[in-house]
Amino acid sequence: MAIQSVNPVNGKMIKKYSSHTPAQVLKKIGQTHKAWQSWKLTTLQERAACLKNISSVLYKQRDELAKLMALEMGKPLKAGIAEIEKCAVACDYYAQHSEEFLKDEFIKTDASKSFATFEPLGVVLAIMPWNFPFWQVFRFLAPALMAGNCGLLKHASNVPGCALAIENIINEAGLPKFVFQTLLISGEEVASVIENPMIKAVTLTGSTEAGMKVASKAASLIKKTVLELGGSDPYIILEDADLELAATTCVESRLINSGQSCIAAKRFIPVKAIEKEFIALFKEKMLAKVMGDPLEEGTDIGPQARADLRDQLHEQVTKSIEAGAKCIIGGKVPAGKNAFYPPTILTNIKKGMPAFDEELFGPVASIIPAKNEEEAIKIANDSTFGLGAAVFTRDLKRGEGIAKQLDAGSCFINELVKSDPRLPFGGIKQSGYGRELGSFGIREFVNIKTIYVK
């Protein structure tokens, strides 16, 4: 079976890739398991040197990797460049700090000595999405390699070029052969890979539905999973907020990656006192964004990654409008063979509409006003998702108090939600479990072993 790479700007095929056969997959799993038996014996200093090499390769190939993303999934070049640089920063971060994160932790008991030590698990299968085809992989891979694990990647089927480029980066950086490999397989073949006894854990970033399937399969085999799933992040705008800052930040967050980000702002909850002013500013800034070819300088919004995904998004918008939502900008599918969708704002949103209940994975904003702070918090938490959230207020103490009340894995005050190698990242409820990044992320795929000396 062939995997096709298609340019979402014009629907033209870029390249066909041959899928790996079941026999090839088994061979690759065995190769990476064997590589792990040596890799786990390397020192942290040796692993850190490897990560620094990876960082250097990323910086060297930055522009061509950004172009590859633009072609395969429509990411504007400036965003692609920033993504590659972020991957390099994560590699440098873990190279610098992993010794501190993984050092033995001594615990006072009645023993002469007792401590926890952190040992690698083995080969981790990473199932990754197309929206950040490099960052999603490296935020798992950098800490996993530093912890002494090895990795196999099952990437989204529309970014095979990016998947193979990551394998080439690891090889060019001079890491031992097979410590990381890409599997070109379909989603239906993932279960059999998880079943392989040489696979010790699974990490997935993707939809809630995909997470349920993978978690169920892994749990049936008692294998550890970390899931980063969908989100419908609420942004609360209070009456004392800096509205210029709030509107600018909200638009920037809603349009991250042309709206295709789990942690993009999706539900905007202004309190009634500033509702009209906020909507006017928000609309003005959304209309100022330029949609176009991701390879052209000045493009803010590229196409959606695939035409079918764009069509699903438009169906959610249409159903919301049919249920009473009001579309004040956008909401129309452009003519031609492409996957573009314009910045769109929906108001008059009610519970039961797709724009309230579901994740809208594209440049569509749902504005849901609240009477006051208390109702804003209630609306924000009225969701099956719990990935990120944000609050805009000039009263920082008030903002912190609200942040603690929001059901989310992270909450930002007067700033858009974003991942940072230094901070733990992940969600609750239907947005998943476990954490990536920071000291918490590197300890997800280790055996936390107690050692006790009488």
TrEMBL record:
- Which part of the chain is the Aldehyde dehydrogenase domain? 3-451
User: Which family, according to UniProt?
Assistant: Belongs to the aldehyde dehydrogenase family.
Entry-linked InterPro entries: Ald_DH/histidinol_DH (IPR016161), Ald_DH_C (IPR016163), Ald_DH_CS_CYS (IPR016160), Ald_DH_N (IPR016162), Aldehyde_DH_dom (IPR015590), ALDH_GabD1-like (IPR044148), GABD/Sad-like (IPR047110)
Q: Which UniProt keywords apply?
A: NADP, Oxidoreductase
Q: Which GO terms describe its molecular function?
A: aldehyde dehydrogenase [NAD(P)+] activity; succinate-semialdehyde dehydrogenase (NAD+) activity
Q: Which domain of life is it from?
A: Bacteria
Q: What is the lineage of its organism?
A: Bacteria, Pseudomonadati, Bacteroidota, Sphingobacteriia, Sphingobacteriales
Query: What is the recorded name of this protein?
Result: Aldehyde dehydrogenase family protein
